[in-house]
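Retro notes, structure queue

What went well: the backlog is down to a handful. What didn't: a couple of records were mislabeled last round, so from now on we paste the full input next to the output in the thread. Example, using Gustatory receptor from Nephila pilipes:
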Amino acid sequence: MLVLFLAMTAFFSSKFLIPSLSTVAYSIVCYKLSYGIRMQNQTMLDAVYKKAFVVHINKYYRIVQCCKRFDNCGNITVMLLIFTYCSILYTGIGLLLRETSKTPVVLLMIEGSFTIFSCIFSVVTLLVFASGIPAAMMETRNTFQQLYRSILLEDISISEKHICLIRALGETEPFYLTAWNFFQIDKGLIFNLFGAALSFCILVMQLKSVELGDLK
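Corresponding output:
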């Protein structure tokens, strides 16, 4: 069993090596960018009544510009990763649903389970970290919308320029990373992918039941 486990581990390591490394690299960059946006949110909030507020806003928009450049460079990569993981996921489902094969059923079950688990973990990791950037920018918008309302309601003394900047930050639309500009990446995409996989399973099971009915 130990030899079998080591062999399966080596097999899946080689199979998922390039996609996994790409996912890790992409996720790290996404995390750094989203973390930078959140830190800059707090810095801007602390400097609202100071002259350095404008400087911190410029830094914020530079981070957003970095996000856009990162999307331009990596949107094809993330599209290929999603396509690869979808293919691997359907392969794993096919292994679990296979009924006739020369390979022992236990090995098919183990390979299919490992394949599906690895694929799900990688996809969820990729999409969660990628959706961190728009989530951080949404925090920016909500924070400065509340601040703008507070300034208006409480009649706080602040320069007109700063009020305009706060209002502009409150109206900022979140930026979403894309998969080759075909669709935006957010957490909702997780449910879409697994919904498609579930539909695939139901379709295969229905086809099998129809074939069995015809044989009878």
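Agreed that this is the format going forward. Reviewer comment attached to the example: The chain is about 80% helix and 0% strand.
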